[in-house]
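A reminder from the course coordinator: this example appears on the midterm review sheet, so study it carefully.

Given structure:
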């Protein structure tokens, strides 16, 4: 139990707000993106700057509190919040400074990707991220970062130049190729295990207008489309990317009314070249199986990044299951079509994100992100606004995943997993796990930062405790 005067002293030290259960803002401040998560921390420290983060880390340690770090609050398993302990909420540390000459972008640890896209677009630049603009830069980056620009420019971590980290003992260090290079290696995929990243420095790339959007086909063509897609995406030029999806057509523009609420399959494209470059690449699929609808047009990159924001608003129930996939055989395709045809709710979906092109250039131990040789990251998400549908979405996602898991590569993308236990985390990092565990022992020997896909500290030889 924390004494009131201890809390009062902490509150007085902070530039940002300290929220406790008696405060009116508590109910809103403890919510995360996934409404299935219902945790009640003892305190939420809205950190305004690095000094606040240092103070919060020290306060948590001195008072023996469990500590969660909150970036954008998007994590599927709700790792940005914990019961009873202290939430170090970085959302006020939100800024983006673009250096166009150096093509470098400095980003505050609590920023969202929408903040980054907005700032970089003005200079005709972009940093590879995900597919939804409200996702936090912190969690997505530290876990790897897969999205529309992965094939062209690699994972988000492949564009990370350095980060400022507040360690468990309150020290602030730079993690870069020159300084604390072991820590720099670990944060490029090892998640929030090593400290609080208060700022990130990214390399930006020349991306302004992209040719992008979905093509949709009837479900009875899904197997043919998947078979075409599995060949196309492994050999396509890096300028083009496309993720495969099973979806229910939302009842609104730009989709024609005749397709509203229909279960269909889709590929959502993004080409960094012009329409003249993109169309010859996509004409073969148009000829082979004419899409029932397509919305493939030139658009500013931030528009593509925000395309799904209105559909996937905060406060929905989400249940996630994931795997890496190397090969998509005919039997796996049959099972995909079977389960994909049974989407339980309008928001539920399955995505196959390509991991190839530039993402294959680093080796499987250049960063902790081992599955460089995978072809896709598969994610099955049961989603619905109504808590009464929880069992339906969970059962569908589990059954779908169980059917496909034998065809997976072993581990899963850490940012697409909920709480699946220590073995799944090990499987994800493979031979990189012991090195991560040894680095954890150096920078966080007491496992202070454990509200994450946890890698317990090991020994210098790499045996985890
Ligand atoms: C709708 C939706 C779409 C998504 N799309 C993609 C996608 O296209 N590509 C992709 O790769 N992922 C995607 N994700 C997954 C996303 O990468 C993870 O959910 C990620 O954890 C979100 O980061 P966050 O900062 O918002 O999360 P939070 O819930 O705030 O934090 C998640 C974890 O990251 C740690 N963390 C966050 N910020 C920091 C920091 N600054 N310093 C230290 N630790 C930190 C926390 O400790 C916690 O363990 C998506 C998620 C959602 C909900």
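Designed residues:
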């Amino acid at each position: 139990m924390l004494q009131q005067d201890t809390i009062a002293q902490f509150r007085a030290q902070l530039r940002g707000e300290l929220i406790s259960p008696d405060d009116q803002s508590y109910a809103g401040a403890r919510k995360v993106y996934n409404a299935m998560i219902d945790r009640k921390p003892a305190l939420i420290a809205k950190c305004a700057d690095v000094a606040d983060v240092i103070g919060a880390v020290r306060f948590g340690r001195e008072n023996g509190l469990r500590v969660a770090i909150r970036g954008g609050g998007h994590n599927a398993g709700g790792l940005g919040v914990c019961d009873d302990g202290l939430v170090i909420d970085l959302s006020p540390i939100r800024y983006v400074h673009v250096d166009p000459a150096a093509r470098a972008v400095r980003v505050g640890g609590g920023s969202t990707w929408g903040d980054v896209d907005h700032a970089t677009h003005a200079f005709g630049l972009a940093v590879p991220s995900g597919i939804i603009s409200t996702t936090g830069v912190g969690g997505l980056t530290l876990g790897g970062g897969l999205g529309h620009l992965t094939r062209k420019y690699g994972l988000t971590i492949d564009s990370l130049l350095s980060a400022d980290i507040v360690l468990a003992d309150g020290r602030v260090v730079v993690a870069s190729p020159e300084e604390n290079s072991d820590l720099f290696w670990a944060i490029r995929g090892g998640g929030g295990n090593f400290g609080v990243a208060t700022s990130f420095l990214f390399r930006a790339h020349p991306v302004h207008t992209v040719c992008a959007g979905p093509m949709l086909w009837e479900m009875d063509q899904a197997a043919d489309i998947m078979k075409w897609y599995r060949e196309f995406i492994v050999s396509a030029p890096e300028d083009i990317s496309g993720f495969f999806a099973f979806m229910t057509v939302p009842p609104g523009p730009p989709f024609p009314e005749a397709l509203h609420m229909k279960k269909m399959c889709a590929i959502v494209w993004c080409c960094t070249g012009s329409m003249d470059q993109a169309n010859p690449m996509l004409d073969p699929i148009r000829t082979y199986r004419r899409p029932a609808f397509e919305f493939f047009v030139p658009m500013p990159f931030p528009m593509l990044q925000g395309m799904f924001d209105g559909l996937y608003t905060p406060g929905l129930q989400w249940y996630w299951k994931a795997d890496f996939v190397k090969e998509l055989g005919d039997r796996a395709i049959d099972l995909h079509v079977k389960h994909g045809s049974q989407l339980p709710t309008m928001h539920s979906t399955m995505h196959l994100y390509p991991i190839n092109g530039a993402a294959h250039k680093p080796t499987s131990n250049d960063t902790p992100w081992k599955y460089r040789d995978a072809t896709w990251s598969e994610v099955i998400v049961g989603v619905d606004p109504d808590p009464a549908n929880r069992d339906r979405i969970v059962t569908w996602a589990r059954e779908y995943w169980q059917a496909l898991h034998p065809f997976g590569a072993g581990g899963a993308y850490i940012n697409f997993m909920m709480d699946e236990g220590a073995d799944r985390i090990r499987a994800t990092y493979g031979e990189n796990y012991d090195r991560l565990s040894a680095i954890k022992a150096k920078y966080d020997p007491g496992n202070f930062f454990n509200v994450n896909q946890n890698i317990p500290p090991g020994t210098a030889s790499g045996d985890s405790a």
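Residues 32-33, 69-76, 79-80, 90, 109, 130-132, 135-136, 138-140, 142-143, 145-147, 191-192, 196-197, 312, 415, 452 surround flavin-adenine dinucleotide (CB under 6 Å). The mean pLDDT is 97.
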